[in-house]
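Quick one:
INPUT:
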């Protein structure tokens, strides 16, 4: 079944701080195909920031827009797409991605995630001081679902280059 999707988009999933955008950009560059960040596309479509959408319309509306944007984006075949950490948790979005894309989960432990997100402030789900606790809770609820991805790349404490090599080896 993985072969059928060979020419479909490559989707990176994982929690905030897993490196989806950083690794996605490098992967796309290496494969000479475009890179798209779904969060960025949502902001372009909505005409405001993700924080604004959460604050003004709530998370449910954000997920609805996210689904529509991803549905549109995955119509392209050769493209790497970094999805927001909650996208794969939305049943309809997950179903779409599992059917039409090659999904790759960047599996990080909480320490690695914390290291990478500590200097960012634009994530509405992490806007409190107990980031470790929030991330640990998200790991508990989300990792069993992320495990449904086609491929799992363990990238705890790994260098970006190591992760990239691992991804390229599974795509060959
Ligand atoms: C979210 C992750 C964010 C963004 C939104 C919600 C989540 O994307 O979509 O803040 O539910 O995990 P990143 O994973 O790119 O930070």
């Amino acid at each position: 079944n993985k072969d059928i999707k060979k020419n479909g988009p490559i989707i990176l999933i994982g929690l905030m701080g897993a490196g989806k955008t950083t690794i996605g950009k490098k992967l796309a560059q290496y494969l000479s195909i475009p890179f798209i960040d779904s969060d960025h596309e949502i902001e372009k479509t909505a005409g405001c920031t993700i924080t604004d959408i959460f604050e003004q319309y709530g998370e449910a509306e954000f997920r609805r827009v996210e689904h529509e944007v991803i549905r549109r984006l995955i119509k392209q075949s050769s493209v790497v797409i970094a999805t927001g950490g909650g996208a794969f948790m939305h049943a309809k979005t997950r179903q779409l991605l599992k059917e039409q894309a090659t999904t790759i989960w960047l599996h990080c432990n909480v320490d690695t995630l914390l290291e990478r997100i500590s200097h960012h402030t634009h994530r509405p789900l992490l806007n409190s001081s107990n980031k470790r606790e929030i991330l640990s809770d998200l790991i508990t609820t989300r990792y069993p679902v992320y495990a449904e991805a086609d491929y799992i790349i363990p990238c705890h404490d790994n260098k970006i280059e190591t992760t990239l090599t691992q991804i390229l080896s599974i795509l060959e």
